[in-house]
Design goal:
Layout lengths: L1 E6 L8 H14 L6 E8 L1 H12 L7 E5 L10 E9 H11 L3 H16 L7 H20 L13 H8 L2
Helix pairs in contact: 1-4, 3-4, 4-5, 5-6
Length: 167
């Protein structure tokens, strides 16, 4: 499994190795094939607003966008999952509002984006519940694997609470 990261923002320092390791762990948990490749882009609000307007017709910044890749035009030995674009500016605002560290919000957005690439959606109530339940399962898995050891002992863990609040 390969994770390619492009950091197009200067607002905050991001531990790219940590993000890669978390992304690979999520991909394994979601049973992505061994030859899976993922692209993650960190950007500012201006960058993501342009994408949100171009691809969703919403001329406003958002926290995360996912772009699945149509594999038919690529080499068969690589399974391209797609691209995840995360605005660190929006992530920082959401983390502050929810009173947890920004890195935890970024992990939440990474999980959310990856689930979209694996076919999850949240347009309907049942879909939203299935996606939230899966997010919570992944949060718990990352805690058990000590990727998110900084939230151990808190009840409910901030990310699990984060997922539940959006129902």
């Amino acid at each position: 499994m390969e994770v390619l990261i492009s950091n197009r923002q200067e607002q905050m320092s991001i531990d790219l190795d940590f993000i890669k390791n978390v992304a690979v762990e999520i991909m394994k948990f979601e049973a992505s094939p061994e030859n899976a490749e993922l692209s993650v882009v960190f950007c500012d609000d201006d960058f993501i607003q342009k994408l949100n307007n171009d691809y969703r017709g919403k001329n406003e910044p958002t926290d995360v966008l996912s772009f699945p890749i149509d594999e038919e035009n690529f080499e068969p030995e690589i399974r391209l999952l797609g691209d995840i674009v995360i605005s660190t500016e929006t992530a920082a605002r959401q983390a502050e509002s929810l009173k947890h560290p920004c890195v935890l919000e970024i992990v939440f957005l990474l999980i959310h984006g990856l689930l979209h690439l694996h076919g999850y959606d949240h347009g309907q109530k049942l879909e939203r519940k299935q996606m939230r339940d899966r997010e919570i399962s992944i949060f718990r898995h990352l805690c058990e694997k000590q990727f998110l050891s900084c939230i151990e002992g808190e009840s409910p863990a901030p990310l699990i609470k984060r997922a539940s609040e959006n129902d």
